[in-house]
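Example 3.2
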Amino acid sequence: MVTGRAALLMALAAATLPLWPSPWLGLAVLAGGILVLSTVDFMLAAPLREVEVSREGARTVRSGETATVSLRVANRSQRVLHADIRDAWVPSAGATPATHEVVVEPGSAVTLETSLTPSRRGDRPAVRLTLRSYGPLRLAFRQRAGRPATPQWTLRVLPRFDSRRFLPEKTARLRTLEGSTVTRGRGQGTEFDALREYVIGDDVRSIDWRASARRSDVLVRTWRPERDRRVVCVLDTGRTSAVLAGAEPRLDAAIDAALLLAALALRAGDQVDLLAVDTAVRATVSGGRHVLLPRLVNALAPLQPSLVETDFELVVGEVLRRERKRALVVLFTALEPGALGDGLLPVLPRLATRHKVLVAAVHDPLLAEAQGDPYLAAAALRTLNERDRVRNALTRHGVEVLDAPIDTFASRVADTYLALKQAGKL
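Structure, written as tokens:
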């Protein structure tokens, strides 16, 4: 194939046609000469079969950050490789530069770096590698689909986990909670900690009379929040999770809050499981405290909303099948009458009788700020009233309900977990 440079050379040569005795003869000679030059240039281009490419570099990156993937190009031929290489990724991978211009000496290799700044969470694959090998004069080039073969590579874009900035504060509150609870009497969600001497103000019901008799002193039992409780994060990945809350889908806000809750619960000594469901189970993670958070992040990365109605019968069935002991079930969903009224409420009693249930929903803060346009304000008011009716219906079944704007959603979920733990309701 010829390049634009050959056409430009032909245009420049055409300017000499008036000097020829016969313009047609001159045109034929010039065209023939350029064709010969292009053919020789094509033959001198490095053959594609002698070019080998491979990749190395980052496999994962957090959303909003930049990763680097290297492309190694080796020239096994006896000719110099003059090439343009287009390394195409999916558009949301944010690959730059899109094209590399290289010169590779015979028997050597070069490494090209591509910076990836993904705009979306999930798996971002390399699509196609196109190599165009030019001759020394760049009048002609070799190019063939599939040669060299595109080296497969997929960059997994992990959730941003912006809410981790709240983790030190929540952890400090957790330690304060555990320290203060040790000095109080026994309650639901507590376990025996130690014996100590009685002081004025202690609950006399905490006196251990047998231990006091053995020590000839008055001893009281102290209690601490029970550990090894179970926390189950259930992500609704149905159609309502695709609705934007602020600048991101509800599912992304739920993932961020679930990661903060999981990190906090793990530091509290609780066991955390995760389930993502719509009409099928999309992701499940359980067990393994020391490696659980990386597994959660990796499992949630490719999760995307499905434009289907969530099967809450399946959700409840999966939770009851997997969790035999009493657990805190945090259901990240939307407070919509259509989705919850017809789907969740009929099956909720089965779940609430065995587990403590928290329904966590995120809403767009614009709902509370729609004041300018009367029609928009009326629609927002109607939506808020419907959410209140759903919240009241869930509360009547003994379910805790959290409805928060996106900017405070993750923090409010963690606060609710700490409040339930302090009240001994887990």
